[in-house]
Design brief:
The chain is mainly alpha-helical and 133 residues long. It has helices at 16-19, 30-35, 37-46, 48-99, 102-112, 129-132.
């Protein structure tokens, strides 16, 4: 009738599953319980691997963003430099065209007093004997 009053029989076998379990002792104060820090600690201890994984992903995200911004900045600098170099090449080409013109060459010869005279006769084309046949 009153089962809980009966004498317990000795246990012959132990449950191995319960022996392997370890209990974690966490020091808690009353303020931790009221502020919710106790639950946060337990949550972090249970999911520490996931928290570390999220922290690593966050670090990689920030690093990737920084690397992309620095490469984009470098790309803009290079584009500006190419634009300046193209303008400089155009200017230099125009100056060379002007300096190689007949009038500028003549003026430079006169300025340096080189005693060179402009040829009046046109150049003669020489042909080899094989070209005549």
């Amino acid at each position: 009738m009153w089962k809980f009053l009966k004498k317990k029989e000795p246990v012959e076998f132990e449950d191995v599953r319960e022996v392997g379990k370890k209990t974690k002792k966490i020091k808690l104060s009353i303020t931790d319980v009221f502020t919710g820090n106790a639950q946060l600690r337990e949550f972090l201890l249970q999911h520490i691997g996931y928290v570390i994984f999220l922290a690593a992903l966050t670090f990689l995200y920030i690093h990737n963003r920084y690397a992309i911004e620095s490469s984009a900045k470098r790309c803009q600098e290079l584009k500006k430099e190419v634009k300046n170099l193209k303008a400089e090449a155009t200017t230099t080409g125009a100056e060379l065209m002007y300096l190689s013109s007949q009038t500028s060459v003549k003026a430079e010869v006169e300025r340096r007093h080189l005693n060179l005279v402009e040829s009046i006769t046109p150049p003669v084309l020489l042909k080899r004997s094989k070209d005549l046949e």
